[in-house]
Amino acid sequence: MAKVKSNRIKSRDNILDYVLLVIFLFLIVITIYPFLNVLAISFNDPIDTMRNINFIIPRKFTWSNYVYVFTENSLGKAFLLSIARTVIGAAVGVICTAMIAYVLSRKDFYFNKFFTILFVITMYVSGGLIPEYLLLMRTLKMGNNFLVYIIPGLIWVYNIILVRSFVEGLPIALQEAARVDGANDFIIWAKIVLPLCKPVLATVALFMAVGQWNSFMDTYLYAKELPTLQYMLYEIMEKATVKIDPHAAETLKNAVSPLSVRMAVTIVATVPIIIVYPFLQKYFVGGMTVGAVKD
Predict the structure, then answer these.
(1) Helix/strand/coil percentages in the chain, nearest 5
(2) CA distance 146 to 71
(3) How far apart are CA 61 and CA 130, in angstroms?
(4) C-alpha–C-alpha distance, residues 144 and 149, integer Å
(5) How many angstroms separate the CA atoms of 145 and 137, rounded?
(6) CA quadruple 177, 289, 114, 126: dihedral positive or negative?
(7) The pLDDT value given to residue 249
(8) What is the CA 48 to chain-centroid distance, rounded?
């Protein structure tokens, strides 16, 4: 009798495993399909794409969409500007965030609570676009200046809170021992706190790098003479038209559809972040989970 019950339980477990397998496979398909569809359209013949047929592999493979994006538009300078703003903006932003977070984590800082509340308020209330535009363009004279990409995005309050929570979870004895040995706050921050904060700093760096890389509105408002890759790709999508001469069969080979160009632009803008993310993934997971549970 016990053996029969055991077999029934195993049978139910097997059925449940198959059901879960089907559900997970379905979730995988609906998650990956949109990206595969974008990739397929970007490599597919534009004329074939205009038929609005959904697929996950190119039906008629071609490089014409990427040729149009890279050869008919000068992206070299824009690409270098995007890399520069991403690397410099993320690096300087991480340093500034770590400094502020360390100060706010200090229990002996008298204005700790005041500045924390002040920072948090800015997450819910902002001055708006017009005051920001007047500040950057008229007061600070930062129009068409590379610093307009760096300074406004130096501090993100969410990142400060994230790093502060991490620092507060570090053993205070390490800082006290360093202070007994004669180290000042800067030495403690640079040689003790920063090395221990690699996971959360990598997380913050990823956040800032993605934000800098994807940003194009600041170029549109403040620095059109210093176009970044995202802004150039935005303009390419806006200008993309179907170039077809019905009386000349040769032009069909060079035809460009807006949808094909849009998908190619999407891939160009996404691939760099996809390449960088795996190298920071282990730090990203660690940085996001630290501080969730405390002793």
Answers:
(1) 75, 0, 25
(2) 26
(3) 47
(4) 10
(5) 10
(6) positive
(7) 40
(8) 32
Distance CA 171, CA 193 (A): 10
Residue 44, beta-bridge partner list: 61
Residue 100: predicted pLDDT: 92
Give 190's DSSP letter: I
CB 290 within 8 A of CB 169: yes
R_g over Cα of the chain: 26
CB 163 within 8 A of CB 98: yes
Residue 39 near residue 265, CB atoms below 8 Å: no
- Give the C-alpha separation, 125 to 27, whole Å: 38
Let me know: does 220 contact 53? Beta carbons within 8 Å: no
Confidence of residue 85 (pLDDT cuts 50, 70, 90): very high
Among 140, 145, 151, 141, which Cα is nearest to 96's? 151
Cα–Cα distance for residue pair 103/144, rounded to 1 Å = 33
Residues written for the chain:
295
* Torsion 30-31-32-36 (CA) sign: positive
Phi, psi of 227 (to 5 degrees): -70, 135
DSSP of 74-111, one letter per residue? --HHHHHHHHHHHHHHHHHHHHHHHHHHHHHH-TT-TT
State the CB neighbour count (10 A cutoff) for residue 139: 9
Say how many CA atoms lie within 13 Å of 198 toward its Cβ.
8
Task: Indicate the pTM of the whole model.
Answer: 0.73
**Residue-wise pLDDT tens digits, 18-30:** 888 888 888 888 8
Read off the pLDDT band of 122 (50, 70, 90).
confident
Using DSSP, state whether 142 is helix, strand or coil.
Answer: coil
